[in-house]
Write a structure and sequence with these properties.
By secondary structure, the protein is α+β, with helices and mostly antiparallel strands. The chain contains three helices and five strands, in the order E-E-E-E-H-H-H-E. The protein has helices at about 35-45, 50-60, 65-85, and strands at about 5-10, 15-20, 20-25, 30-35, 85-90.
Length: about 90
């Protein structure tokens, strides 16, 4: 990965763990998104301040996955989060 971008949860998003999943609710838009185990872990790592490189490094240590597949999956999850306005680049409100 050439650049490392850090994302923060949107302030209007609340999260609740349900088993292995996390349910996100965007209070301003009433959107609800249920995250599977992997996406839930990405959400937790974002909330702890991890940037994209940190995400990939930590997930690689936690999951048995091909590095190329992992990078693609992380980008797809982040794109979904951004498309639903669940996150913003850290430092941007």
């Amino acid at each position: 990965m050439t650049s490392s971008v850090r994302f923060s949860p949107h302030p209007d998003v609340v999260a609740s763990r349900v088993g292995d999943e996390i349910v996100l609710v965007h209070l301003a838009t009433d959107q609800i998104l249920s995250l599977n185990r992997t996406a839930a872990r990405i959400w937790e790592l974002l909330c702890s301040g991890c940037d994209e490189e940190d995400l990939e490094r930590r997930l690689s240590a936690e999951f048995d996955v091909n590095p190329g597949d992992l990078e693609r999956d992380v980008r797809e999850v982040l794109a979904t989060f951004r498309a639903h306005d669940l996150v913003h680049r850290a430092g941007n409100a």
